[in-house]
Amino acid sequence: MPTTPAFAAQSASTPLAPFSITRRDPGPRDVQIEITHCGVCHTDIHFVKNEWGFTVYPCVPGHEIVGRVTKVGNQVQGFKAGDRVGVGCLVDSCRTCPDCKDNLENYCVNMTMTYNSPDKFNSGPHTFGGYSSSITVDKDFVLRVSETLDPAGAAPLLCAGITTYSPLRYFEVRKGSRVGVVGLGGLGHMAVKLASAMGAEVTMFTTSPGKAEDARRLGAHHVVISKDSDAVTKAANTLDLLINTVAAPHDLNPFINTLRRDGTMCLVGAPDKPHPPIEVFPLIFRRRAVSGSLIGGLRETQEMLDFCADHAITADVEVIPIQKINEAYARMLKSDVKYRFVIDMASLKG
Ligand SMILES: [Zn+2]
Ligand SMILES: [Zn+2]
Q: What is the widest separation between alpha-carbon atoms in the chain?
């Protein structure tokens, strides 16, 4: 089996460092990919530091992968060497459960995550992610990425993009919909771009007055400073859908009150501790809902990538060599990035 240079964490307390992994030889259904770019998601930090308690080491994170096909198996159609492709958070699922049958592999309880999942293909103790030079993936979990998109800016679409696109589509956002976005980070900036491209009137809720101008540049029509309770109160009963991207516990009640009758707040940020309790009356009296959403299925992820190509949408990124990854994590914890770090994987060979 081919060995591949990578960056791995060996324990919750050690920084990421060079490490060599093996990838399987491509089987008949496999696509072998040379990784050119990998986005850096907050989930990567949670896993590296074992903040959710189930990391297996060594841990090679990365699930916002863009690269070029180097080889395909003899049963693979639709991909050939040289094609630009992407891999997101999943590399396999059971394929037989109701969720898989509905093209919602992201809700399959037996999905194989791109990293930190048991490796059915037995090329390693568990799956290794995109902080590496190459990856071999079953054809059904490989996505096409348009040549018209900047590959670095396209990488975060594979997690941040689909995580926000999927609820916008599920809740049928269209021209004239009124959509709020809470939190202007990796997820939030994608939600603003996607919702405004769908024709929605977008309201950005941010704690940082300094981000107001940037939110407008990204496509927000209104900006509400969420620390200003009067301003939040003024936005009551205005929104059809609120995408809440904040991954820290916070009071959801003022945001629920910004929803119109039948409006929904969809949570896509995953805090490690619960939010404060939700008041019931504001839900009952306006038939409002609080919901959640996890990435998206493969079919929808391809639809999102095609939508982004049609609308020339990519993430705002800061490209780094992999040697700067530990520094990048430290900066992410201070929200010091606009709005996603992306690793230029050529740096791994250098
Ligand atoms: Zn992610
Ligand atoms: Zn399944």
A: 62
